[in-house]
Amino acid sequence: MPTTLKPLPPFKSVRYAGRAPGPRLIVTGAVHGNEVCGTLAIGRIMADLDSGMLAITAGSVTFVPITNAKAYVLGQRSGDRNLNRALEPSASPTEYEDHVANWLCPLLAEHDVLLDLHSFQAQGRPFVMVGPRDNSGTLEPFAHAAKEEALARCLGVNRAVDGWLDTYAAGVERRRQSAAAEGLPPSHELHPRYGVGTTEYMRSQGGWALTLECGQNDDEHSPFVAHRAILNTLAHLGLSADPPPPVVSPIEALSLVEVIDKVHADDAFSRPWKSFDALKAGELIGTRANGQAMRAPHDGWIVFPNAKAAARQEWYYLARASTRF
Length: 325
Hints:
Structural class: alpha/beta
CATH class of the largest domain: Alpha Beta
Number of strands: 14
Helix content: 25-40%
Order of helices and strands: EEHEHHEEHEHHEHEEEEEEE
Strand order of the largest sheet: 1-3-2-4-7-5-6-8-14-13-10
């Protein structure tokens, strides 16, 4: 059942515009309520803009310090549900995140580019998630890959990951077929575009977007990673008068290629994996409750391992090296 929490702060966005024409940037924080590095960094940037220490000279930038206020007030990832899944406007909003989507989606569509600031639970170094290569397919047609790659090189991180939506969609389709075979009713989690979040929605509206994972949720350095990324983005896009930011090279590029779900709550990892731990072909990753050994099908990395996942949820992702960068 949806939780009740009152009062909640109103939806809030703040826009700064320069005198010259230029791109329209939007920067979001706290899409997940316990990921506050973006909120802290945005607050610092807005203070500098308000004091005159930083100026927007061209185009515009809109800041959304707290995207999901309910989750933020609760200090947890979601309010009623994960805002960053199946994101789209709702004609009949029922959960809190439906109301957020009805406000947020039109706001995103007003802009050209999105920088979405996140953090993660496990230890690990920051990384950026980029969209697909240019394509005319049906899942995520796109024509701005070069723009995303150029900005990704300027954010100050040296790892980039792609392949999110097609990998996620394949996992959803597998779950949908399994649920249908078992006679289970349709559910929100089996939505064919359940993997669509802020960046994917932005691309569907003709824009382009990056998700920056700034580090561990509680790492005191994560807000500094977010702050640097905002400044570098403003300079790279020509919104501020700062010189172009340095280009990071080399960048370690990975592509997500498969998501593995838990089948039973007692499925267990062979050890406490962290995101981007390297895997060798044949290496034991975990064991199903029925005794089936789950081994790496190829050299690569494990990504987003979740030992606490419930049955029918994502357990871990597999990634391979990419030549994209």
